[in-house]
Specification:
Low-confidence stretches: none
Radius of gyration: 19 Å
Number of strands: 2
GO molecular function, one term: heme binding
CATH superfamily of one domain: Cytochrome c-like domain
Shape: elongated
Helix content: 25-40%
Largest sheet: 2 strands, antiparallel
Order of helices and strands: HEEHHH
InterPro entries: Cyt_c-like_dom_sf
Strand order of the largest sheet: 1-2
Structural class: mainly alpha
Strand content: 5-15%
Distance between the termini: 37 Å
Length: 109
């Protein structure tokens, strides 16, 4: 995603200025290092590196460099993900719909 710079694709420059921040997932104020550790542990199903590890320090440093000059405490344009429009037809997640798709048949409504 353009090395963490692409707007509307969870850019790293926009994430940097959001921390520290409260996360309801773990019920406390997280540092950026904690948030990055969570990405390793939960999003990547791996072991979380120590907060002072080379990889966490490198990611924080890169994010800082990308965010230089960005204001803090405000919603930045391009922050987060782009909002997608609703599909014209809703997906059919019923067992019958799945079976028909697996058999190569198409459901019509």
């Amino acid at each position: 995603m353009n090395a963490g710079r692409r707007k509307d694709a969870a850019p790293l420059w926009a994430a940097y200025v959001l921390y520290p921040a409260y996360r309801s997932k773990n019920g406390h104020i997280n540092t950026l290092a904690e948030r990055l550790q969570g990405c390793f542990q939960y999003s990547m199903n791996g072991a979380k590196p120590a907060a002072d590890s080379e990889i966490i320090v490198a990611l924080e440093s890169y994010m800082y460099w990308l965010a230089k000059g960005a204001p803090t405490g405000v919603k930045l344009q391009g922050q987060g993900f782009a909002r997608l429009s609703e599909p014209a037809r809703k997906a059919d997640y019923t067992p019958a719909g799945g079976r028909l798709r697996a058999e190569g048949k198409v459901l019509t409504k």
